[in-house]
Amino acid sequence: MTTGETRFSIPQRIGGWLYLWLVAAVYLASTILINGIGALPFVAPDIWRMAGDSTGPSYHPLIKPLLIFSLTSRIALLMYFCFWVAPNFFKLRQRASKMIVAFLLAYLLSLVIEQSLWIFIRRSFPYMLWLGEGNPIFTTQVIIAGISCLIWVPYFLLSGRVRTTFVNGASESRLNPPAEQEGLSGAHETLKRRAVFTLLCFVGIGITFTPFISSYIQLWQWRQDFTKGNDALQKGQHAEATQLLEKALERMGPRFSETKRIATLDDLAYAYHKEGEYYQAEKRYQEALELRGIRFDRGSTDLTWGLDNLAQLYLSWGKYDKVTALAKRSLEIKDASYGPESQEIAVTLDILGGLAHRQAHFKEAETLYQRGLALREKAVKPDHKDLIESLANLAELNYDLARYAEALRLAQRAALLVETSTESDAADRRGHTTLARTLHIQGHYTEAEQLYRKAFSRLEGTVGADHPDLAWSLGDLATIVYDYGHYDEAQRLAQRASMILEKRFGTKYPDGMWILDILADVYLKQGRLVDVVQLATWSQKVREDVFGLEHPDVALSLNRLAKVNVVQGKLSDAETQVRRALLINKNMYGSGHPVIADNLQTLAEVYRERGRLGDAEPLYQEALAIYQRILGTETVDVAQCLESYSVLLQKANRNGEAEKMKAHASAIRAKVSGNINSDIKSGRF
């Protein structure tokens, strides 16, 4: 036998590449241990809670089996490694190499199965991006396991050193090399090898645990802030949510998955949106959309979440020119991916419906709203906040179209769902506002005031003093105080609301013009005509710039300017303005809307002041008939029309009719003002 043959036939001790395998083995075992810990219920409580809640919006029947598979597979791999692979390796048994190969392949297979199932589950929930990959470095582990198999499987199957090292049978003790039988020198050699082995183990453990510990500390801190932020968001505590979610975003290191970053940005932007911090919300939504564009295909359904978010923000902001492209792109992707009957489409339909509504394309808005409501009624729970949103949208549209019976029905249903909803964030002002306004315009002042006061009290305790929702609530209170005849208090409330909106959105915010309308009406009653002209002219300009020349909001400003010109004796200007307003409103609403009655009354006043009493009276009669038919007989609008009509009767020397009409108007006003609450009288609001 040759020297070379003798050298390779002698059983070898662990050495060479096997030392490197020891480092890799410690790394892989530590990875399995830490990933197993990451799947425990007390480490990932949000995932386990979601997995067990079959009624939750993110429930999937595969999540819980996947978590159980992840946990049990890691326990099994660790036990196999510790009780079979490691002992056989150090005892140099022949079967050790095959066990190592089996361990490597089983680990890779378990990771591939787990990753594939996570991807499948995520595709079932395109909006649940926070599911991520189940671990911030999970994908890295799949790659490392694959590389380990490519390196070590061929090595343990083909290496000559492995064949000559692992030679012991199952019942044999470890064979000792001659060096160990040479007394003191052999003992020193053994001690040296053990020291090297211990050092390598410590190096492997250090290399393994350092990034894992750092990642899990970051992940744990992020999860704490993210979960608390979401809880605050669900409770409507938006200011607290923004602080927590900003902190969560700051904690996100480079190892965090893009899906978790996107989810954090989405929630943070939504919190800013609800707070009225539109500039901050836009910044965060755009960051999330850019990440989606990098991570996902341009036709991916994940992209639609970002498109919808940004479109909804621009709709609230009054930046209508930016809404259409975003919403239509989202709708195209959803149509192609889900089909036209999917509940996912309802979100985008609401956005497009809201845009059409604000632009006074009422038929288009109604079609979109109704389609969205129908899809949601089929798919979501009866108290789901999205269903409340659909009902509120349709209620507002019917209110604007003076279909008050239908508006009342829808608003009552929405308000009832808000009261019974388990989703706290659904209970925002839209659940009750349309109901209150519908009751108000139809003369149910006591009920309307109670709802206005309830909304204001809730907001005052939960939002900041300069929150936009508080401005809307103050505006509602100002309208009812105005109807009660307390103009100074109405002025104070409207001015406070106007200051909030101007501070947040500037002076060109289209939705803020409604508050200026209230203030202008108050100034008109106070005789401050210059201020009325200034406000009405500005609101007309803003509305024309945003909506064009033929929008009903423009007609509101025109009618108000016409009223001022009647008082100032500028009758030609007044007639031109009111006729233009009347034409716009008839094209939009037909002939039976309260705003038509308002325009007819203003035109009648123009004719009355010109002495054309015969032309004016039929207009008064028509206006009065519309008010009484649509709003009822005991409302402030009816009283105002009767008072104006009585002036014409006096000019026509029909004093008896005039006195009777004024007495009727006074009785209505006395009845209305008798409803006023002591809090309003004392200026509490």
General description of the model:
It contains 30 helices and no strands. With 685 residues, the protein is mainly α. Helix 5 runs antiparallel to helix 6 and helix 27 runs antiparallel to helix 28.
What is the topological layout?
Layout: H1 3-9, H2 17-38, H3 45-52, H4 63-90, H5 96-124, H6 138-158, H7 160-165, H8 184-234, H9 238-251, H10 258-275, H11 278-295, H12 302-317, H13 323-338, H14 345-358, H15 362-379, H16 385-400, H17 404-420, H18 430-441, H19 445-462, H20 468-484, H21 487-505, H22 513-526, H23 529-547, H24 552-568, H25 571-589, H26 594-609, H27 613-630, H28 636-651, H29 655-673, H30 678-681
Name some characteristics of this structure.
mainly alpha, 685 residues, disordered N terminus
**Helix and strand pattern:** HHHHHHHHHHHHHHHHHHHHHHHHHHHHHH
Largest sheet: none
What structural class do helix, strand and pairing data support? mainly alpha
Q: How many helices in DSSP terms?
A: 30
Write down the overall geometry: elongated
Question: Average pLDDT across residues?
Answer: 83
Task: Give a brief rundown of this model.
The protein is mainly α.
